[in-house]
């Protein structure tokens, strides 16, 4: 039986503040995940579902992209994976009656948390022009309507096709094929807001925009630096890997403006010691860096390594390009500028340098703390310089480790979800399907918003995700979306993007990872690629929320047939019924996927080739690994202002809010909090527990305000503040993006504080 949805709403949230914790997981995490799951499902379904997470015969956890260890533990999931699974496998349902009872105007007043709690979507729904309510439509009507709007465009570039990173390889491949046969490269995706900066920096310097390490490398490393990442919440299974690395003698350094509990100590819930005992201390050295100080930190490290001549000269001579220019510039790194940018004492930087000098094998892991800054790309290039100096790329126990977010965000890119595809990819695609794909680059996420605003994009189609809530500058973005002709969302759950729409809107419900997927050709499975380039299968086992739900693969296949017409000539029906036929095509288009259908049926799947990792071959413009020169910059913050980073609480998955607690940071019952260093709070007159408005400052003079945030005195690095996304996306200016990657600067928003305008 479906249960009643809880009614609490963050609009009336009342955060309570306790002490931050100093260890992650352990028994409370197990209890927490089971409680969350049982709010959504019967006990039998909880067991049946959680038993299949990340098992060879089961489904890939829709939580994060962290890889599965070779021999899977019987419970290879974590507290937050369990929440992600429960969110999807919930027994609550949204039926046409729900939409009849709630006008869209009313739903637009509801919190994202409330929308998500209503259950799984079951029926295709249409919001027609001028209508107040969504009404049911048949699948055929829905596809015909999309075809009508797309075919009415002057140019295929008047449409944009967004992807969120849960989409399977098979669906992603067909989706980009469809967009390109239609004639556009407008394929924005969540990567644009996520690891695009990593992809840009790594492609330029190493030739492959992905991480170069496997789990085995982590276990063999001497030193692991975790910079700008909160794995205790966002990649909990990474803590088991760090624990294992530590047992084998590795040192762990964390670089973060916040002391994150998960990096301090880990109580592994999968063994008795972790459940009951004190757990394992993870961080050996914690550098509490200022927001945006990482480029300065890595430049300082590089200067010290050069001064000590701690350079792998043989590696540099044989494999690298640009060393002399880099050396001249890095050696001149100004110490005072480093101290100002990082806020760290020089002695701590030297302490880290000593650890580096004592280590043969070094890995640097990072996530959004590095990628969402104006100077994110130069920062990551400098990390690469640091690793190249001592030959830490392309040998066991060493390398770059950008830790991906969505469970298949890396695979989607591999399948061609990219607004700037390479010529080689388009050549292969064109050859396989006998057509000439469009060559002109398309729009990324931020440029899609601009194009909608300017009337150049009229149809917005989303394969998953929650575009209006996930993107910056909420008010500008919502206005842009509302000016379009048609918005279409292929979704599992209701969210904000379904109630802020174009003139017409469609919701196309779909199967999730946990659902059984049967077609005319029998049982189907899909494949995904994890953060370390391992490809494996995923097969759901639950009865789908409705009998006529279509998988993403079938939705794309039927859409393509409806839009492109019978004259298109590709066997879309066959693609939709038999995913093996899609994989056969992928095997001939995407490098590394030869013999795909056979290889993916082996337990554990297979690893994609990676030149730098496998053979120290670097497919860059110079044919070598490129050193780069990255002038020292850091965010500038005027007097009386702080730099705000927007981050995740422990009870959310991006725009999906599971609950109102952030347990490790000691915050419960609400999300509208702003964490401020007590010394900064004293200077700015921000009383603990008081309420304020956050107002962001940007060169365009537009006022961006997020009202009613409770001030929490918290040990964040001086000069910075932290608050949760997506509530704070209203503060991130659309034009404030990273150089090169165009990623919104979600970790660097200049704000001032004003009296609480909600006046509560
Ligand atoms: N449970 C759960 N899991 C998730 C997600 C989720 O929302 N919930 N989201 C998924 C997705 S899509 C992604 S991309 C990942 C995100 O994973 P993370 O990147 O860990 O997520 P954030 O909460 O954005 O955390 C950023 C971390 O970087 C630190 N930081 C911020 N600015 C700086 C800086 O300038 N320098 C340094 N050194 N550190 C900084 C913050 O203090 C924080 O610890 O997680 C994925 N997994
Ligand atoms: N201020 C600020 N903004 C940020 C960030 C930040 O740190 N700060 N982080 C950025 C990052 S890293 C990312 S990745 C983006 C995330 O941006 P998105 O990927 O667009 O957002 P999500 O919240 O992950 O999308 C959740 C929705 O996906 C749908 N969904 C879930 N599972 C499935 C599925 O299997 N199939 C389909 N079709 N739909 C499904 C559900 O309807 C759910 O409501 O946000 C970015 N925005
Ligand atoms: Mo992400």
UniProtKB/TrEMBL annotation:
Keywords from the named record: 4Fe-4S, Iron, Iron-sulfur, Metal-binding, Molybdenum, Oxidoreductase
Matches recorded under Pfam families: Molybdopterin, Molydop_binding
Boundaries of every Molybdopterin oxidoreductase domain copy: 120-484
Family matches, as SUPFAM superfamilies: ADC-like, Formate dehydrogenase/DMSO reductase, domains 1-3
Domain Molybdopterin dinucleotide-binding: 642-749
Region described as Disordered: spans on this chain: 1-22
Feature: compositional bias, Polar residues: 1-10
InterPro entries, per the entry: Asp_de-COase-like_dom_sf (IPR009010), MopB_CT_YdeP (IPR037951), MoPterin_dinucl-bd_dom (IPR006657), Mopterin_OxRdtase (IPR006656), Mopterin_OxRdtse_a_bac (IPR010046), Prok_molybdopt-oxidoreductase (IPR050123), YdeP_MopB (IPR041953)
Cofactors required: Mo-bis(molybdopterin guanine dinucleotide); [4Fe-4S] cluster
Gene3D superfamilies: 3.40.50.740, Dimethylsulfoxide Reductase, domain 2 (3.40.228.10)
Keyword Iron-sulfur: yes
Family designation: Belongs to the prokaryotic molybdopterin-containing oxidoreductase family.
Protein name: FdhF/YdeP family oxidoreductase
Organism of derivation: Kitasatospora terrestris
Organism classification: Bacteria, Bacillati, Actinomycetota, Actinomycetes, Kitasatosporales
């Amino acid at each position: 039986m479906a249960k009643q949805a809880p009614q609490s709403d963050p609009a009336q949230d009342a955060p309570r503040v306790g002490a931050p914790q100093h260890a992650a997981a352990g028994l409370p995490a197990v209890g927490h995940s089971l409680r969350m799951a049982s709010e959504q499902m019967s006990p039998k379904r909880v067991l049946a579902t959680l038993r299949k997470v990340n098992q060879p015969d089961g489904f890939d956890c829709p939580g994060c992209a962290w890889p599965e260890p070779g021999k899977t533990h019987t419970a290879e999931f974590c507290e937050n994976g369990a929440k992600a699974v429960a969110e999807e496998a919930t027994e609550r349902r949204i039926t046409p009656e729900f939409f009849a009872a709630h006008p869209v105007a009313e739903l637009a007043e509801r919190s994202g948390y409330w929308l998500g709690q209503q259950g799984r979507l079951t029926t295709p729904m249409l919001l027609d022009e001028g209508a107040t309510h969504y009404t049911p439509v048949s699948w055929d009507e829905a596809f015909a309507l999309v075809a009508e709007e797309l075919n009415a465009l002057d140019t295929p570039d008047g449409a944009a096709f967004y992807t969120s990173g849960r989409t399977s390889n098979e669906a992603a491949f067909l989706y980009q094929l469809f967009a390109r046969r239609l004639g556009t490269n407008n394929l924005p995706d969540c990567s644009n807001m996520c690891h695009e900066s990593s992809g840009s920096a790594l492609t330029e310097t190493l030739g492959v925009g992905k991480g170069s390490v496997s789990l085995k490398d982590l276990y063999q490393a001497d030193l692991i630096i975790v910079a700008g990442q909160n794995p205790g919440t966002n990649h909990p299974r990474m803590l088991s890997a760090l624990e294992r690395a530590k047992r084998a003698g590795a040192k762990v350094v964390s670089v973060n403006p916040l002391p994150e509990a998960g990096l301090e100590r880990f109580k592994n819930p999968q063994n008795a010691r972790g459940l009951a005992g004190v757990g394992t201390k993870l961080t050996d050295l914690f550098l509490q860096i200022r927001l945006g100080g990482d480029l300065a930190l890595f430049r300082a490290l590089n200067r010290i390594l050069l001064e000590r001549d701690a350079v792998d000269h043989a590696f540099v001579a044989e494999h690298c390009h640009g060393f002399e220019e880099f050396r001249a510039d890095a050696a001149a790194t100004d110490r005072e500028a480093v101290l100002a940018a990082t806020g760290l004492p020089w002695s701590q930087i030297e302490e880290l340098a000593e650890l580096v000098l004592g280590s043969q094998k070094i890995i640097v892991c990072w996530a959004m703390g590095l990628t969402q800054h104006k100077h994110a790309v130069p920062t990551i290039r400098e990390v690469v310089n640091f690793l190249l100096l001592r030959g830490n790329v392309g040998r066991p126990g060493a390398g770059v480790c950008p830790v991906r977010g969505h469970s298949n965000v890396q695979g989607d890119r591999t399948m061609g979800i990219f607004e700037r595809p390479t010529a080689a990819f388009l050549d292969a695609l064109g050859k396989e399907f006998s057509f000439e794909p469009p060559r002109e680059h398309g729009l990324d996420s931020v440029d899609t918003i601009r194009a909608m605003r300017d009337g150049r994009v009229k149809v917005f189609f989303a394969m998953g995700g929650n575009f209006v809530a996930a993107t910056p500058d909420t008010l500008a973005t919502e206005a842009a979306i509302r000016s379009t002709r048609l918005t279409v969302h292929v979704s599992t759950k209701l969210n904000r993007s379904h109630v802020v729409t174009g003139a017409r809107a469609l919701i196309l419900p779909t199967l999730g990872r946990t659902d059984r997927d049967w077609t005319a050709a029998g049982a189907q499975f899909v494949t995904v690629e994890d953060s370390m380039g391992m490809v494996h299968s995923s097969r759901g086992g639950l009865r789908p929320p409705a009998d006529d739900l279509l998988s993403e693969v079938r939705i794309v296949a039927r859409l393509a047939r409806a839009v492109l017409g019978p004259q298109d000539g590709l066997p879309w029906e066959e693609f939709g019924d038999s995913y093996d036929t899609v994989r056969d095509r992928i095997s001939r288009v995407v490098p590394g996927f030869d013999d795909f259908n056979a290889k993916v049926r082996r337990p554990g799947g297979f690893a994609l080739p990676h030149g730098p990792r496998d053979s120290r071959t670097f497919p860059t413009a110079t044919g070598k690994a490129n050193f780069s020169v990255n002038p020292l910059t850091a965010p500038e913050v005027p007097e009386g202002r702080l730099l705000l980073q927007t981050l995740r609480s422990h009870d959310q998955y991006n725009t999906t809010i599971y609950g109102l607690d952030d347990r490790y940071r000691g915050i419960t019952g609400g999300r509208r909090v702003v964490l401020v260093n007590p010394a900064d709070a004293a200077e700015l007159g921000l009383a603990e527990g008081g309420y304020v408005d956050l107002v962001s400052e940007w060169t365009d003079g537009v006022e961006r305000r997020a009202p009613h945030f409770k001030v929490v005195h918290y040990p964040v690095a001086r000069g910075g503040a932290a608050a949760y996304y997506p509530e704070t996306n209203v503060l991130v200016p659309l034009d404030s993006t990273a150089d090169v990657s165009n990623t919104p600067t979600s970790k660097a928003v200049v704000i001032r504080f004003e009296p609480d305008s909600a006046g509560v």
